Amino acid sequence: TYQWTNQVFDQQGKRWAQVDAAGYPVAYWRSGDIIGYEFSLNLPGDMLAGDYVLRIGQYTLPDIATVPVIDVAGLPQSDAFEVHVLVKP
User: CA-CA distance, 41 to 57, in Å (whole number)?
Assistant: First the structure.
């Protein structure tokens, strides 16, 4: 079973929010499928405005092994995709 994880970190590496959810069941995967995924993160009220990093990744259950992000050549690059985000007050 594959799970998604979505985490928000500040520039010092403190995690401010996280939401994990089940992925699309592997039994239904077909070659060429494109699967959309939507999630909501509740940010804490004491979170300051500023630059943060949203990390999006996958892991397997029950063994909690990360799934690598691969490049166009099929080579592993990281354990998550990172997006820089601006949090406004």
Answer: 15
